[in-house]
Each structure stands twice: as C-alpha cells, then as structure tokens.
Amino acid sequence: MTPANGQSDLTQTTLQYTMLIGATGGIGQEIARQLCANNQPVILVGRNAQTLTQLVDALSKDYPDVPLVSHTCDLSAQVSQTLLVEDLSEMTQGHGNVIDTVILNAGINDFALLTDQSDDTIEQMMLVNVAYPLQLIKRLLPTLIAQHSPSQIISIGSTFGSIGYPGFSVYSASKFALRGASEALGREYADTSVTFRYFAPRATKTTMNNDAVVAMNEALKVNMDAPETVAKALIHFISTDQTQQHLGFPERFFAWLNRLFPNIVGNAIVKDLPTIKQYAKKS
C-alpha cells in the first residue's frame, strides 16, 4: 500500500477511508476526483500500475491535503487480492484506521449479439463483473467486520442489471447477478456492521461504450450521462440510506416497470430490435 500525497506513512493517523476498486476507468477517475473534492481519504485500487500512478499524481497535485493511498491489484489473481486485503488489515487492525466505504467499480462490456461473441469474451465478462467482485468481498468481509464500525460495500451496476437488453445479453446477465448478490449479501450479513448497496448508472460516455453503442443511442434518442454526472450522483448516494438507486429518467421508471410488467417493457424494446441489431453488427 503506497502513500500517494507526500505523507511518509498514512497509517500514523486514524482516518476513515473510502476504497475505490477500478479507480482508473472513465467513471472511476471521476469518482476518485469527486471523493477528493469532498475531502474524503481515498484508497485507489487499479490493475494498470502506470495509469494508476498518473491518476494519483494528478489528484495529489489538485488535492494536496487529501490523504491518498494507492494499490495495484489484479482481481483475476487470488494472490493479488490476498495482498490487498492483508495491507488493508494492517491499516485498520494495526493502526486504527477504518475502511468506511468500498466501491466496486471494476467491470467490462461488449456490445454484440450472443452468436457473434466468443466463448472467451462471455467467460471474461462474467468473471470480471461478477466472480472477481464476489471473491474480493469474501476476502474483505472479515476485515470490515473486525473494525466494529459501520461500513458499506457499494456495487456499481447498470440499468441493464434490471432490464435485459438485446446486444447486451451477457453484460445484462452479469449485472443482474451482481444486483442479486448485493441484495442477498445485505440479508446474509444484516447481523453485522456491514451493509450492501447497489448503484445503477444508465448509459455513460466512456470508452467502455464504443462508437456503435454511441451511434445506436443517438439513433434511438437514448440519453448518455457524462462520467462526472455519474460520479456526483454516487457521492450523493453514499450520503443517503437508500439501498439501491437507478440514475436517469425514463430508465429509472422502466427498471421499476420491468419488475412488475416485463412484457410491456419487452414489447417496447422489441420495436427497436432492427436498429439494435444493425448497430450490434457494426460493433
């Protein structure tokens, strides 16, 4: 665990940290910036060491008084997850710091019809979006519970975690699973100090959505949020007691409607199927 803002050892002072997993992505970098803007001590975790260093350098320059810690972690490697959790245990149990919030933001996407996706792509999406986060949660829970202080784990999902959408069948499956896991874990650990929450952005302007997705959304008149908009909404969500939040209208309404009357939502989507397939083929 590397102090990132010039302090020799951040564990010398008792602090309440927010840990951001997937800090170097388009939304992740904006979340990190918004946390710093709110003077929140942050642990930034990312797989790409170079990109993580660049982010830390930029944030340290803009927010020199905010405690920053960085840690390179490859969630696909068990040893890497274990090392991260061991460092966190040292920060908390060894020095009295607290991990107040864990934001699980790592994820990947692929816009394509199922028959056009490779087996490797399908497997990788389920691993990165579901299996690896659950493995990390499993390893984090003993440390969080041992703090004897309220903490929360927030999973970053998607509108497509509530509405199955053509061209995103595997991605939808992964986000449905993540939402279900968050709900189940909230009940499973209701007798501890750890709470589980789910935050679902709608379409966002990041590199995870390629040109075909952007063009399709323009053709269908689907709104796309800027990463900064999503990050600011998440910061507000953290301060509330809501278990779940879906961003945007009409997406929030359709997520609700799909639970009650899926055929109504399904029929509306199927009307757009020729356009969706046209752009999925271009992806």
- Count of helical stretches: 10
CATH-defined topology = Rossmann fold
Q: CATH top level?
A: Alpha Beta
Q: Taking Cα atoms only, what radius of gyration do you get, to the nearest Å?
A: 19 Å
Share of helix among residues? 40-55%
Number of domains: 1
What structural class should be given to the helix and strand makeup? alpha/beta
How much of the sequence lies in strands comes to 5-15%
- Strands, total number: 8
CATH superfamily: NAD(P)-binding Rossmann-like Domain
Walk me through the structure.
The protein has ten helices and eight strands. With 283 residues, it is an alpha/beta fold. It has a single domain, classed as NAD(P)-binding Rossmann-like Domain (Rossmann fold, 3-Layer(aba) Sandwich), CATH 3.40.50. Helix 3 runs parallel beside helix 4 (119-146), helix 4 (119-146) packs parallel to helix 5 and helix 8 (251-260) crosses helix 9 (262-270).
Summarize this, please?
This protein is an alpha/beta fold and 283 residues long. The protein has 10 helices and 8 strands.
